[in-house]
Amino acid sequence: MIFGRVKSLDAILATAEKKSLHRSLGAFQLTMLGIGGVIGTGIFVLTSEATQKAGPSMIISFMIAAFVCAVAALCYSELASMVPVAGSAYTYTYAVVGELLAWMVGWALILEYAVGASAVSVGWSGYVVGQLKGWLDIDMPAAFTAGPFAGGVVNIPAVVIALLTTWLLMIGTSESARVNAVLVAIKVLALTVFMIFALPVMKARNFHPFMPLGAVGTFGAAASIFFAYVGFDSVSTAAEETRDPQRNVPIGLIASLIICTLFYILVAAGAIGSPLGGQPVRDAAGTALLPGSAELAARCQAIVAGGALEPMPCSREALAHVLRVLGHPAIGNLLGLAATLALPSVVLLMMFGQTRIFFTMARDGLLPERLAAVHPRWRTPHIVTAVTGVAVALASAFLPVGKLADYSNSGTLFAFMMVAISVLVLRRADPDRHRPFRTPAIWIVAPLAIIGCLVLYLSLPLIAILVLPGWALIGLVIYFGYSRQRSHVGRGISDGDDQGGVPPRTV
């Protein structure tokens, strides 16, 4: 049977049970963990993209995306507390609904992590270019700071950061909790400073019309902005190390999402209320142009050449640009510097997640086991890291940030939907199994997560919608042509037999 291969939940837990986890995290620590995982790329990079899609109603878009994340996070937490091992949604799906769908989820997670890392690399490039201009008055040629879809040729800074991150992951450079805490503080401080300078001077007239492109634009922006919330699962995956997880996990999840959403809404309001406004850029006929298109890039160049302020949808570093327009160029440059310092850590964490998904799939026999090889000195899965890094660099070289974020969201939304389905299936199939965290009102929350993910997926641009089934078709060809015959579950290899080799060093 195609759906008959289910990897025993007990077998998956066998490795985790060999090493008990110390429960030391409380609600406050989980909330800080969630804030650190969420605040980053989306608000610094995608604000201009959301403005072009929704205008001032991108404030509502942030709320919609946050709600879908909240119900999905509650489902995610139940499985994470039951299956505290590597593999994320791929492992959960394997344990509940079988190998084929697990393969599809793992294959879709490539879109989340690898393509997401490409999107962050492109966003980082925009801030680096702005920093060079703001601090040193150096103008990098547009041909070498954007891909062909955004009016350039190749995005060299994005390629550089992608390859540098790959090298760091290969040699096993680790981030300490202290460094992570500093980066979180930098991000939160930067957004707080922006609000202090932008909110008191915002103009109410800039919010009219509030929904210039209608509900379609608002939901389209919500689908893109969903990328700004990816990272909240860092809370749910810590369930096994949390004191009183049934109480503290939902507090950490909801509190971090509420705090981040308030930050996002206030920052968006400050940006829209600035002299730049928040209306989409239109062509001569009055039609709103597509974000990330060559037509939008040309229109933006024409507006600036005519002596007008660069509109917010045109800026590659929107928040820093707003502060400069408000008469605070030094503060704007410092905010851009904060983003420049903080965003590479997001690239690193996304690429780390991708390599570990690949590592787990290769360990299960679904990908060539050579990909799970660990370097004898660095103790990292160097081969799969190199392959991932090259793919990330190529994508970031030629595609704009908005398109990459949309492609990433299509894979993420599919994975989250499968997690919600898995929770429902497991509640029916194994209702008596111990659950350190139980999703409240599961028969309401899980369906809301499924519907929310579907609505946001269908609100993505058409090409992003088509990317997922096209990518899935490639995945099915690989699965039936290679993976199914080599699967450890299909060959009867137990969980204890496929753990050979030195485990990779974690980041």
TrEMBL record:
Q: Report which superkingdom the organism of origin falls in.
A: Bacteria
Q: Which UniProt keywords apply?
A: Membrane, Transmembrane, Transmembrane helix, Transport
Q: Name one Pfam family in it.
A: AA_permease_2
**TM spans (from-to):** 27-46, 58-77, 149-169, 181-201, 213-232, 253-272, 334-359, 380-399, 411-429, 441-457, 463-482
What Gene3D superfamilies would the database entry show? Amino acid/polyamine transporter I
What is the annotated localization of this protein?
Membrane
Q: Which InterPro entries does the record associate with it?
A: AA/rel_permease1
Q: How does it sit in the membrane?
A: Multi-pass membrane protein
Q: What is its main location?
A: membrane
**What are the coiled-coil residue ranges?**
none
Identify the PANTHER family for this entry.
CATIONIC AMINO ACID TRANSPORTER 4, INNER MEMBRANE TRANSPORTER YGJI-RELATED
Q: What is this protein called?
A: Amino acid permease
